[in-house]
Every structure is written in structure tokens, then in C-alpha cells.
Specification:
The chain is an all-beta fold. It has two domains: 18-52, no CATH class; 58-152, Gamma-adaptin ear (GAE) domain (Immunoglobulin-like, Sandwich). It contains no helices and ten strands. The radius of gyration is 29 Å and the shape is elongated. The protein starts with 21 loop residues before the first strand and ends with a strand.
């Protein structure tokens, strides 16, 4: 090879989103010129596209709770409940339920979730109200869990 000969290397990354599942094939045609003459190389591509698994389906029976007026320093006689249902195909692990916000201490939360809610199961979140002031009081009920190692809230 003479000192004027050059070698050029390029790397291409190919990505695709299959529109169907099953075995898929294609070819990558590479055309280049050698001594003024076009040359073509064919690279066979094969892969298997799998159906995506259904996403976890977590539902709450209520989007919020409203409590009747309550005297400061007293606790509501009965808590209000929200049912969490896991109708997905994967267990919810690392369950954590907490009340947060400036007025979080005015709410009492108990639940039957434990650390895991299996597929097709539900658990009950019970929230009580014990105001520490006479103002309008709000807080947020946070439910955190993991699905296949991914944390969600």
C-alpha cells in the first residue's frame, strides 16, 4: 500500500421499532467504490420482535378525600378509605404509603398493603383527620411502589 492510500472506517448504528411481532428479516446494503467501480456488500439482518408486556395497571378508588369540619385537636370518628387495585400482570413491590405536605401531621394513615401487592389483589388505605389548626388543611397521600425494578409514584 502506498503512503497515499487511505483507510476510512465508519460505524453506523441501526435502530428500529417493529410494527409486528415474530421473526423479522431485512438486509443492509453497503455500496462503496473501489478503483472507480461501485461494489455492494449485503448484510443479512434477523431478529425476533416480542409482544410488549402489558403495563402495570394500578387504580385508586378515589382521587381525593374531603373531611367534614373537625374540632382542632380531635380525631374524626371514622377514617375514609381508598382501595388500591393491582390489575396488571406484575406484583407491585416496595410499597410505601405516606402523607406529605405542610399539614401532613393533621392526617393519620394506615393501610393493608404491606410491602407487596400481588397481581389481581388490592389493599385498603385508611386516612383519618385530626386537625392541628383551625385553617383549611390539605396534604398529599403518596403511594410509591416498584414494578420490575422501576420505582413509580
Amino acid at each position: 500500500m502506498s503512503s497515499t492510500a487511505r483507510r476510512a472506517y465508519e460505524t453506523e448504528q441501526l435502530y428500529g421499532e417493529p410494527s409486528t411481532s415474530g421473526k423479522l428479516t431485512a438486509s443492509l446494503d453497503i455500496t462503496y467504490i473501489v478503483s472507480g467501480s461501485p461494489q455492494t456488500q449485503f448484510v443479512a439482518l434477523t431478529g425476533t420482535a416480542a409482544e410488549p408486556g402489558p403495563p402495570e395497571t394500578v387504580t385508586l378508588s378515589a382521587g381525593g378525600l374531603t373531611f367534614e369540619p373537625q374540632k382542632e385537636g380531635t380525631t374524626s370518628p371514622a377514617g375514609k378509605t381508598i382501595t388500591l387495585t393491582n390489575s396488571g400482570t406484575t406484583a407491585l413491590t416496595g410499597m410505601d404509603v405516606v402523607v406529605s405536605g405542610t399539614n401532613a401531621k393533621s392526617f393519620i394513615q394506615k393501610n393493608s398493603c404491606g410491602t407487596t401487592v400481588e397481581t389481581g389483589k388490592n389493599c385498603v388505605l385508611t386516612v383519618g383527620f385530626s386537625p392541628l389548626s383551625t385553617a383549611r388543611i390539605t396534604a398529599t397521600l403518596n403511594v410509591t411502589y416498584s414494578v420490575n425494578g422501576t420505582k413509580k409514584t
